[in-house]
Amino acid sequence: MKARMFTRVIMLTAMVFFAGTSVYAGGHNQNGKEMKNQVFSAPESVRTYPAGSPVYINGKLSVQGTQMVNECGKPVQLKGMSSHGLAWFPQCYTEESLTVLVNEWHIDIFRLAVYTHENGGYCKTDTTQWKSKEDYNVYIDSLVDICGKLGIYCIIDWHVLNEGSGNPKNTLNDALPFWDYMSAKHKDDKHVLYEICNEPNGFMVRWSHVKEYADQVIPVIRANDPDKIIICGTPMWSQDVDYASQDPLSYNNVMYTLHFYSGDHTQSLRDKAQTALNNGAAIFVTEFGTTKASGNGGVFLDECDRWMAWMNERKISWVNWSFADKNESSAALQPGASRSKNWNLVSESGQYIKQKLSQPKEFEPCDGINGVEDNLLEKQPIILYPNPTKDEFNVSVPGGMRLSKVQLFDLTGRFLLESEEEVVDISSLSQGIYCVKIFFTEGLIVDEIVKE
Q: Which of 73, 122, 235, 251 is at 20 to 30 A from 283, Cα to Cα?
């Protein structure tokens, strides 16, 4: 019997979320390196998250120097999608669509863009109001809960932009009670991050104005939630991170927003961002597009590749704009996708981003064990055999464990088949390497099988 034992193994205690048992099916390691099985456990949490999910593995995030780190102090790079305006495309933001984003796009984080002054914005009180503030809060809470149920991180984004909100100080009357409510409501939710002003802008808006706004909002948040990550926008549509780094905010666990659109923003903006990093500022790209800043003008994938390489090298987290079926180049979905509920009906930009999201994760979970004997895998490792194989393979599970199911994915993360048997038939698949997720009573592992 010959078996290839490699890839990261995650041994996790099965857990119940809300009314049912939930297991994360989003992340996987496909780097093909020969690795000894490792055993990991997740940090303790008030809310329980699905076994194997990004939040289960990493726990509550914080900032060390210029790096976002997990609960054990290990670097974390998150990758995900942003909503468009919640009031404009609510049909795109449901438990069904977010589940597809987690299981088939493999996002780690989702951003909730709460527009303030535009039609349907949170601050509106006229005929363009979408919901009352109370109902808006309940709606945002429901999306936060869906993200938690799926085990992904969630950014609550106070989306200042143009109509009266370019200077975030103009939103203070609404921002202060909004952040007081959100920070009190979600203070115990490890998966939540706060973005307090999306894109400060305007010829007269300087970092000093943004800082004055932050110095009023952050104490309100910290009174309820003393250490959750807060992300602060910077002037010029969140491009002036270098100016912010010269006069930083004096609070713990603060990051600075950098936004780019690859059709307009190139090396000169990366140079500004590098200056900020050199000055000790932690950066989060909470929004970027593959297009021009207008959201149109075609896609600029070569330049986006350069941005991707730059962010990956520095482990800078990123969120793409936007998961919506708006008729514009930057939308990840084609027009009409929400009507048909086809969340894989992607645009050219969406196809590119989905491929980037499906690349192997590089999380470094906390060491230790959670509900499973330390040396169990070393004594009786789970083995797939024969490997390589032609038509079928066997799953060997150590005594005392019960196999729940086996799922196969291709190397882009596309789901292929599921079996509850210890002998898995793959005769219908083409030759190649496939990701195998093995669910059992204690959690799951991820491995690979080669079809000849």
A: 122
**Whole-angstrom Cα distance, residue 408 to residue 265?**
39
CA distance 178 to 221: 10
For the segment 146-178, what is each residue's pLDDT rounded down to a tens digit?
A: 999 999 999 999 999 986 789 999 999 999 999
pLDDT at 446: 76
CA dist., res. 365 & res. 103, Å (int): 20
- The DSSP symbol for 208 reads H
State the maximum Cα–Cα separation within the chain, in Å, rounded to a whole number: 72
**What is the per-residue pLDDT across 372-382, written as a single tens digit (0 to 9) for each?**
333 444 445 67
What fold is seen in the domain 58-357? TIM Barrel (3.20.20)
Q: Find, among 107, 134, 69, 170, the residue nearest to 332 by Cα.
A: 107
Higher pLDDT, 439 or 111: 111
Question: What residue ranges of the chain are covered by domains with CATH 2.60.40.10?
Answer: 16-24+383-451
Q: Kindly report, as residue ranges, where domains of CATH 3.20.20.80 are found in the chain.
A: 58-357
Mean pLDDT computed over 385-391? 94
CA distance 107 to 332: 13
Helices (H), ranges, 186-252: 207-224, 235-238, 241-246
Token pair 């995030």: residue? 61
Q: Which of 428, 407, 430 is nearest to 418 (CA)?
A: 407
Q: Are 346 and 323 in contact (CB under 8 A)?
A: no
Say what angle helices 267-278 and 301-314 make with each other, to 10 degrees. 10
pTM tops 0.70: yes
Percent share of the chain, pLDDT over 90? 72
Question: What is the rounded radius of gyration, in angstroms, for the C-alpha atoms of the chain?
Answer: 22
3-state secondary structure of 104: helix
List residues with catalytic annotation.
Answer: 199, 287
3-state secondary structure of 108: coil
